[in-house]
Amino acid sequence: MSGVWGWFGGGAAAKQKNSPKNAILGLRSQLDMLQKREKHLQNQIDEQDAIARKNVATNKNAAKAALKRKKQNEHSLEQTLGQIGTLEAQINAIESANINRETLLAMERAGEAMKQIHGKLTPEKVDDTMQKLQDQIALSEEIVTSMNSVQVGNAVDEDELEDELEQLQQEQLDEQMLKTGTVPVSDQIQRMPAVANGEPSKGKAIEEDDEEAELRKLQAEMAM
Questions:
Q1: Which domains does the chain have, with CATH numbers?
Q2: Residue 188 class from Cβ within 10 Å (0-12 exposed, 13-18 middle, 19+ buried)?
């Protein structure tokens, strides 16, 4: 029995929900008909005006009859435009009211959802949970600090590493000088003094070294 009553209740609710939609559809259908009538009346007015202009000099009775029909069509057009304006206002009013209703229902559903989400949640429970979380974070940081404080293996002397690195770089430079007979350009730039008191510029010194390298290369090829 309750299912039967629920079916009737559901049908009434659905009908009530669709009522604004059905009203808007009916109004729009009527508005479409009036807009077509508006177009037809405007065409009739233009047609009668053309007839009156055509016969104004040759057939005054025909011109007068055309003007009379034109006036009647203009009166009908004025009424039609008024009806169109009324329907458009009604459609806008129903749409606005329906939007307001749907917005209110959405807000009510949101409120119920928030209520279910919060449940038995209270500010005190939130504070207690946050305190526990902070305690666990602090404990984790202490554990990480303790683990990092334990040094595995022997400590490495950074100055010793730097010295060894410079030694390796110098060995590479010496090896390159022995193979090519020239100093790399980058090393030349580092070792050249700054231009001052009429000393040769860096660019000129590099250019002279390149020429010497080319000369030695040419001498080696001739010797071969």
A1: 2-121 (1.10.287.1060), 181-224 (no CATH)
A2: middle
25-35 pLDDT tens trace: 999 999 999 99
For residue 221, give both structure tokens. 């090829």
Residues 6+ apart with CB under 8 A from 195: 201, 202
Both structure tokens of 48: 């009668």
For the chain, how are helix, strand and coil distributed in percent, rounded to 5? 85, 0, 15
C-alpha 41/C-alpha 34 separation (Å) is 10
Helices vs strands, H then E, count in the chain: 6, 0
Residue 159 reports pLDDT greater than 70: yes
Give the total residue count for the chain: 224
Between the two ends of the chain, the Cα-to-Cα distance in Å is 116
What tokens were used for 67?
Answer: 């003007």
Average pLDDT over residues 49-54: 93
